């Protein structure tokens, strides 16, 4: 259990210092008329209301990705040929007694290989704690997870699709089309990882989706990294609003400098998605959790600890 934990506030784009306090965050903050802003094609309006909350949020260690050239992620801002290590996270949500996953991390099987293995694009995946073992520590099994919401289909997000093949999956229609298209390679997907999704129950989404209709779990469309990339805005009673940004920006530096990685499917959409996420942070006071920011990830208690 995580209470009264403090975060470092590193500015507008930093993790807001909305620590768990004794005052319950009601997640009903309305955006003032002045703050109603339109960023690109995106309107931040009344659909940002939140009346419901999730019960718990667990950060799971989804492994590490060792990439040989950080300039791929931050073109023009990072030296070519320098290695970068990315944290990978998956998240477990409990809402109304049900279990929901947001992404699934790097494949558990990789844990059997000392030092990990190259999975895609010369990127080495390393798994130190399997997702299965982390769920076991919490006292549940993969079969207990009824719903999976997917940010996008890269190996570090969809790696354990097979563990959750029984669940109902929420995937953006554009992402689903690209994952199963003949040119999957151009998007960097590894279809063998998500073959089971051909038989799974999949709910296709077209843009934003308030999954339960109460604002507690809201999918925010943030394309650009891949065709159907999306982020997740969660409302917690004590912690407040948490935006799991997926790979809108791999880490804080990229968000602050609006860096668009060379592998992104659409640079213009990528920039607009970063603007959109930035507007949500500012207008709604949400914290942003960068999935691949190894420094920020190190400040989080991971499962079995949880946020309320
Ligand atoms: Zn990723």
CATH fourth-tier homologous superfamily: Ribonuclease Z/Hydroxyacylglutathione hydrolase-like
Total strand count, please? 15
Approximately how much beta-strand content do the residues carry?
A: 25-35%
Helix coverage percent: 10-25%
Gross morphology: globular
CATH architect. name: 4-Layer Sandwich
- Count helical runs: 6
Structural class from helices and strands? alpha/beta
In CATH, the topology is named Metallo-beta-lactamase, Chain A
What is the compact description of this entry?
This protein has 308 residues and is an alpha/beta fold.
Question: Could you walk me through the main structural features you see in this protein, from its secondary elements to its overall organization?
Answer:
With 308 residues, the protein is of the alpha/beta class. It has one domain (38-298): Ribonuclease Z/Hydroxyacylglutathione hydrolase-like (Metallo-beta-lactamase, Chain A, 4-Layer Sandwich). The chain has six helices and 15 strands. It has helices spanning 131-138, 155-158, 173-179, 252-256, 267-284, 294-298, and strands spanning 38-39, 42-43, 56-67, 84-95, 98-102, 117-120, 123-126, 145-149, 168-172, 201-205, 209-210, 217-221, 230-236, 240-244, 287-289. Strands 6-7-3-4-5-8-9-10 form an eight-stranded mixed sheet. A five-stranded mixed sheet has the order 11-12-13-14-15, with helices on one face. Strands 1-2 form a two-stranded antiparallel ribbon. The radius of gyration is 18 Å and the shape is globular. The relative contact order is 0.20. It binds zinc ion. Zinc ion binds at residues 154, 156-157, 247, 292.
